[in-house]
């Protein structure tokens, strides 16, 4: 492991260094709190453990460690284990160091096997922490992404809509929402099979994304239903954009196992009135979609 020692007493530092080297670690050294911070910031990703003396000139170990923890934040994946060393074993000092962000405290003179044990314990914890963060990020991605199309799912779409409604209100900017539904999709499943239907959904999502404007959010909000959030867009502009999507999605056939599948989509569009709730806004877009369906499909209705 790469271990950084911050210790102002040269003899203590030498001894510690010799010992850690004997254990096979690579050791770097600094001799005060300021050096600790600058060395850490420059080599953050290469370091595995910090061993820090409590009392050092210029900046104490505790001050330096507090700054390092503040810099890393609680969710840093590379959160580094820190072991404090001190000539004092006063209860208050122990608490002070741990509260500042250290993971272990050893009093000097250091018993080397105890140090070794602490290094094993703190790195094991850091490893577990990293795995938890990765698992958490995966879980979050899973719970907000539609497995078939990789678009945001309904939950993520509604959250994004809530955010955009807030922004629209704060910045007094128009916001439009559209619901897009494949026409007679059931026929595709019935004629070519469910896998063909799945293929069409994925391909349609790809085509939609290929033309996505930065800042827009597209999600899969139902079986064959997609939601579009168009910030900074009034309803007329949104209708024009949706007209473009309608054409984009239906002009080329979807080729599945050498069958050309033709489809059309219907779209309902509306603009946020600044007052309504999310579900009311989506409901209005749904009503417009219903009108599009009832008046012949393959069209955009405001
Ligand atoms: P309309 O023009 O009125 O929208 O007709 P439609 O056939 O598209 O609508 P309907 O609601 O009658 O049928 C939707 C179909 O979408 C039925 C359902 O099996 C299918 N579907 C929903 N989710 C999936 C999916 O993930 N994969 C596939 N292959 N089909 C799906
Ligand atoms: Mg000291
Ligand atoms: Mg449909
Ligand atoms: Mg239907
Ligand atoms: Mg539908």
From TrEMBL:
Taxonomic superkingdom: Bacteria
EC nos: 2.7.7.65
The keyword Phosphoprotein appears for this protein: yes
Alphabetized SUPFAM superfamilies for the sequence: CheY-like (SSF52172), Nucleotide cyclase (SSF55073)
UniProt key word Phosphoprotein: yes
Reactions catalysed according to its record: 2 GTP = 3',3'-c-di-GMP + 2 diphosphate
Domain Response regulatory: 2-123
Signal peptide positions (record): none
Modification type 4-aspartylphosphate: residues: 53
Pfam families, sorted: GGDEF, Response_reg
Keyword vocabulary terms for this entry: Phosphoprotein
Sequence ranges assigned to domain GGDEF in this UniProt record: 173-302
PANTHER family listed in its UniProt record: DIGUANYLATE CYCLASE DGCM-RELATED, REGULATORY COMPONENTS OF SENSORY TRANSDUCTION SYSTEM
Protein name: diguanylate cyclase
Native species: Marinomonas ostreistagni
């Amino acid at each position: 492991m790469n271990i950084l020692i911050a210790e102002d007493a040269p003899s203590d530092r030498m001894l510690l260094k010799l010992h850690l080297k004997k254990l096979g670690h690579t050791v770097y050294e600094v001799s005060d709190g300021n050096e600790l911070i600058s060395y850490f910031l420059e080599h953050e990703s290469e370091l595995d453990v910090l061993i820090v003396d409590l009392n050092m000139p210029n900046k104490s170990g505790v001050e330096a460690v507090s700054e390092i923890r503040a810099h890393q934040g609680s969710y840093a994946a590379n959160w580094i284990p820190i072991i404090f060393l001190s000539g004092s074993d006063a209860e208050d000092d122990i608490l002070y160091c741990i509260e500042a962000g250290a993971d272990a405290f050893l009093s000097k003179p250091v018993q080397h096997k105890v140090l070794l044990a602490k290094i094993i314990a703190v790195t094991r914890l850091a490893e577990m922490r990293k795995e938890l963060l990765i698992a958490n990020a995966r879980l979050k991605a899973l719970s907000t992404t539609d497995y078939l199309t990789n678009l945001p799912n309904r939950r993520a779409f509604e959250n994004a809509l809530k955010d955009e409604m807030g922004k629209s209100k704060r910045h007094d900017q128009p916001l439009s929402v559209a619901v897009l539904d494949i026409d007679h999709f059931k026929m595709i499943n019935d004629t070519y099979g469910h896998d063909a239907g799945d293929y069409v959904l994925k391909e349609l999502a790809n085509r939609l994304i290929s033309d996505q404007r930065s800042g827009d959010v597209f999600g899969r909000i139902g079986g064959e239903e997609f939601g579009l959030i168009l910030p900074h867009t009034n309803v007329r502009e949104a209708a024009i954009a949706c007209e473009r999507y309608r054409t984009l999605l239906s002009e080329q056939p979807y080729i599945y196992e050498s069958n050309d599948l033709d489809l059309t989509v219907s779209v309902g569009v509306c603009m946020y009135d600044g007052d309504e709730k999310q579900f009311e806004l989506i409901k209005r877009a749904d009503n417009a979609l219903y009108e599009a369906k009832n008046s012949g499909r393959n069209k955009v209705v405001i």
